[in-house]
């Protein structure tokens, strides 16, 4: 797997590069700002770009704009956005068209190396990774006649992992159950929430997210 | 601030004036009497012609002497007298005596040039630009210089004293050039007068004088054109022209009388201001009394060292050549300035009388203007203070983000990588996990602190995204109706954000509501922000609800914050913020 990193803090950029290197992932480009990242994405065609949401010069939305531009101009390059704050509004912007090959994680997550690498691989393979904070915020929200109340605690756990972008295998690993059992939970959740079941794992992220947001 | 101090105060009785006026009057009377005498002595006089010559000459002389006496600093009086004299001398053409005749012929066309000079120099005797000086120069060169050339070449009948030879062809050419030059100068002068009048409304009586000037200039131009091309009807037009030229000084005399009438209107002004000392429209009252509709007032604020209008907005004293400022003092302190037509500058006494009459009212108005200027300044400094606070908060958030937060994340990452390289030791691993967990908690706390200081998502991604996140974090369902395309000025976004954030926090804390609605609507340069809930209402709008702080924030942007909170009927917080 080939990765490009855009992060203006040298400390973190080097840290991420090193942890990826240790995990046997090829870091082909490192950038300190958005323009340089776009240039390197064009030149090196990485599988995935890791983008800090705040980049120079103004540290406002440069990283976000770069991520959206890569999504629209280089759809073959997956994007994992890192930020010190995760905001539902931004997640919705990022996933506006599809949840394929896109991730949005709190920057802190890099210190849980194994999970971070797993999320990165998932995104690079066309899946998605949404930070648990966003998912739990949405799930814990009160709704009139809350349909989530019908779910069992186990189904709730599965729902949260599903919304975060985990594959059935990933869910099975996290909850230490069989993939078969996961599939059963998933179909039960879809029935209870009245959602049409979709084939692809990334498409169901969007479906669950849309449901949770409404 | 530099101001045009009243440089001269007229003293009409000053004896020095008589040294000019008395000999001028004597000379003028003699010249005019002589021209009549010459005309009558020549036999078979053209009575109408004689009358018209005096009709032009005498009013100029009288008006000039009056103007000279009333306004000795103004050059207009002597100029008018000179015009009258030239007219009287040109009448000497009717004399039998060769000497008098020669003088008369030399002055034949000079009155037209002098008339142009008077038109352009009106009302204070000064020309206003080099162009006007050049026009007058051309006119004199044609009227005097070319006339002498014509006479030496035998251009007038009968022969005069300075004739050298008779060159009829050359004379005809010189005369055409002479008349065309004068026609062109008169038409250019007409354009100057018309454009000058286009500026602002001046005093009414002056307007009439200038109209009579304009008509007479057109007539002179027409007359000279007719003479050049030998059109028929020259004598009829000449009479009308002379009549118009004579009318102008008469109108001017009426204008001087009008200024005298204005003096009596000061009495009316005093009565009006006494009836209502805080006159609602002091400017209009003064404009009426001084008969200058263009009059304006500027109040002096010593603390600000500047002039302001009644609304407290800074005003510049005019540097327009047609406008002048007269400073008004009261009890030795400078109060205000009257900004008026330059022509009014000659009426120092009138201006001073008006200033004295309106003194108390002007002082009142000045205090009002000062109050408004202070309010203006205060609201400006409040907005600046809030802006400065905002910038400081942004800087702090940024420092936290780039400093402590980044370092903690890097530290946590380092621990993880260290852990990977350690031999499998359960106790050590436990220690490291605890440390990383501590760091994660610190980061979470820091994130909350940073968000409290300044919501970075707002400055980075705008109001809609930021409010979406606020709604997501709210502990109750929030409907959103956000109709704001694009970004707004930062201070507006920040104020709107806090209205929503504080509003939702209040709903969560006090309202016992089932749901809330947040709406943003941008219309006609105003942003309308609303947070509505279906809770118990009856919110405490005075105490620690944070509403006071919100109102301050919104009002600093000249907006309004309103709260409706009927008991049992929910609460509606509405902010209206200008965002043009």
The H-and-E topology of chain B, N to C, reads as HHHHHHHHHHEEEEEHHHHEHEEHEE
**Strand content of the residues of chain B, in percent?**
5-15%
Total strands of chain A: 6
The shape of chain A is globular
**Main beta sheet of chain A:** 6 strands, parallel
Spans where pLDDT lies below 50 across 5 or more residues of chain A = none
Query: How far do the termini of chain A sit from each other?
Result: 37 Å
Summing up helix and strand content along with how strands pair, one would put the structural category of chain A as alpha/beta
Q: Strand share of the residues of chain A? A: 5-15%
CATH topology of the largest domain in chain B: Rhopdopsin 7-helix transmembrane proteins
Q: Helicity range of the residues of chain B?
A: 55-70%
The dominant shape of chain B is elongated
Number of helices of chain A: 10
- Domain unit count of chain B: 4
Helicity level of chain A: 40-55%
Please, could you describe this protein's structure?
The complex is a heterodimer of chains A (214) and B (580). By secondary structure, chain A is α/β, with parallel strands linked by helices. Helix content of chain A is 51%, strand content 14%. The mean pLDDT of chain A is 90. By secondary structure, chain B is α+β, with helices and mostly antiparallel strands. Chain B has 16 helices and ten strands. Chain B has helices at residues 15-41, 47-70, 76-90, 98-106, 110-121, 130-152, 168-198, 204-229, 234-275, 282-290, 348-357, 359-421, 426-453, 456-473, 490-511, 547-555, and strands at residues 296-301, 306-308, 314-315, 323-330, 333-341, 478-483, 516-523, 526-533, 560-564, 571-578. Chain B has a five-stranded antiparallel sheet, covered by helices on one side. A five-stranded mixed sheet of chain B has the order 6-7-8-10-9. The chains are: A alpha/beta (214), B alpha+beta (580). The A-B interface holds A 9, 11-12, 15-16, 18-19, 22, 53-54, 59-61, 64, 84-85, 87-90, 92-93, 107-108, 110-113, 134, 137-138, 141-144, 213 and B 398, 401-402, 405-407, 409-410, 412-417, 420, 436, 439-440, 443, 447, 450-451, 456-457, 459-461, 464-469, 472-477, 514-515.
């Amino acid at each position: 797997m080939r990765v490009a990193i855009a992060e203006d803090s040298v400390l973190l950029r080097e840290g991420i590069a090193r942890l990826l290197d240790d995990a046997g992932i090829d870091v082909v480009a490192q950038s300190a700002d958005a323009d340089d990242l776009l240039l390197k994405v064009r030149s090196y065609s990485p599988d995935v770009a890791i983008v800090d949401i705040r980049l120079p010069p103004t540290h406002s939305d440069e990283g976000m704009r770069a991520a959206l531009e890569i999504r629209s101009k280089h759809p073959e390059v997956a994007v994992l956005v890192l930020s010190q704050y995760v905001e539902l509004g931004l997640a919705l912007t990022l996933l506006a068209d599809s949840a394929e090959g896109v991730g949005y994680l709190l920057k802190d997550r890099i210190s849980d190396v194994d999970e971070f690498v797993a999320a990165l691989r998932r995104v690079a393979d066309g899946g998605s990774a949404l930070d648990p904070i966003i998912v739990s915020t949405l799930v814990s929200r009160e709704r009139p006649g809350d349909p989530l109340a019908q779910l069992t605690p186990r189904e709730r756990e599965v729902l949260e992992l599903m919304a975060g972008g985990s594959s059935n295998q990933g869910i099975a690993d996290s909850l230490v159950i069989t993939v078969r059992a996961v599939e059963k939970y998933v179909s039960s959740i879809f029935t209870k929430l009245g959602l049409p079941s979709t084939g692809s794992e990334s498409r169901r992220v969007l479906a669950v997210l849309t449901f949770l947001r409404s | 601030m530099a101001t045009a101090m009243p440089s001269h105060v007229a003293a009409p009785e000053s004896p020095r004036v008589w040294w000019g006026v008395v000999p001028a009057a004597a000379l003028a009377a003699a010249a005019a009497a002589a021209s009549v005498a010459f005309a009558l002595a020549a036999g078979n006089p053209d009575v109408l012609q004689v009358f018209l010559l005096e009709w032009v000459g005498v009013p100029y002389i009288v008006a000039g002497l009056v103007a000279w006496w009333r306004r000795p600093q103004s050059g207009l009086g002597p100029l008018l007298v000179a015009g009258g004299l030239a007219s009287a001398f040109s009448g000497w053409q009717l004399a039998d005596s060769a000497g008098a005749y020669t003088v008369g012929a030399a002055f034949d066309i000079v009155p037209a040039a002098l008339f142009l000079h008077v038109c352009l120099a009106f009302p204070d005797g000064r020309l206003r630009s080099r162009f006007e000086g050049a026009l007058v120069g051309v006119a004199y060169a044609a009227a005097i210089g070319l006339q002498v050339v014509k006479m030496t070449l035998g251009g007038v009948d009968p022969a005069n004293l300075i004739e050298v030879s008779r060159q009829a062809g050359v004379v005809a050419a010189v005369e055409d050039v002479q008349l065309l030059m004068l026609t062109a100068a008169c038409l250019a002068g007409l354009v100057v007068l018309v454009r000058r009048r286009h500026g602002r409304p001046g005093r009414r009586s002056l307007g009439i004088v200038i109209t009579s000037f304009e008509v007479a200039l057109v007539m002179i131009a027409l007359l000279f054109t007719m003479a050049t091309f030998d059109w028929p009807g020259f004598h009829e037009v000449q009479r009308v022209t002379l009549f118009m030229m004579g009318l102008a000084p008469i109108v001017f005399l009426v204008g001087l009388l009008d200024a005298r009438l204005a003096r009596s209107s000061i009495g009316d002004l005093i009565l009006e201001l006494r009836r209502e000392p805080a006159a609602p429209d002091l400017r209009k009252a003064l404009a009426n009394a001084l008969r200058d509709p263009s009059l304006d007032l500027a109040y002096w604020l010593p603390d600000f060292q500047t002039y302001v209008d009644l609304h407290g907005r800074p005003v510049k004293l005019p540097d327009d050549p047609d406008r002048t400022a007269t400073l008004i003092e009261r009890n030795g302190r400078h109060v205000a300035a009257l900004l008026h037509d330059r022509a009014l500058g000659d009426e120092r006494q009138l201006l001073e009388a008006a200033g004295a009459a309106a003194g108390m009212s002007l002082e009142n108005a000045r205090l009002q203007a000062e109050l408004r200027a202070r309010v203006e300044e205060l609201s400006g400094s409040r907005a600046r203070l809030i802006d400065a606070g905002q910038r400081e908060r942004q800087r702090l958030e940024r420092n936290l983000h780039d400093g402590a937060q980044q370092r903690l994340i890097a530290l946590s990452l380092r621990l993880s990588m260290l852990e990977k390289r350690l031999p499998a030791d359960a106790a050590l691993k436990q220690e490291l996990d605890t440390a990383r967990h501590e760091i994660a908690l610190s980061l979470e706390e820091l994130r909350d602190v940073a968000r409290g200081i300044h919501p970075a998502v707002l400055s980075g991604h705008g109001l809609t995204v930021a409010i979406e996140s606020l709604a997501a974090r709210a502990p109750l369902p929030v409907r959103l109706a956000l109709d704001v395309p694009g970004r707004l000025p930062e201070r507006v976004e920040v104020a709107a954000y806090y209205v929503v954030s504080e509003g939702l926090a209040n709903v969560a804390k006090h309202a016992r509501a089932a749901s809330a609605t947040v709406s943003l609507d941008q219309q006609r340069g105003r942003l309308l922000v609303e947070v509505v809930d279906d809770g118990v209402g009856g919110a405490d709008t005075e105490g620690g609800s944070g509403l006071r702080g919100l109102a301050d924030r919104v009002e600093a942007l000249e907006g309004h914050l309103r709260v409706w909170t009927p008991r049992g009927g929910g609460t509606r917080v509405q902010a209206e913020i200008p965002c043009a």
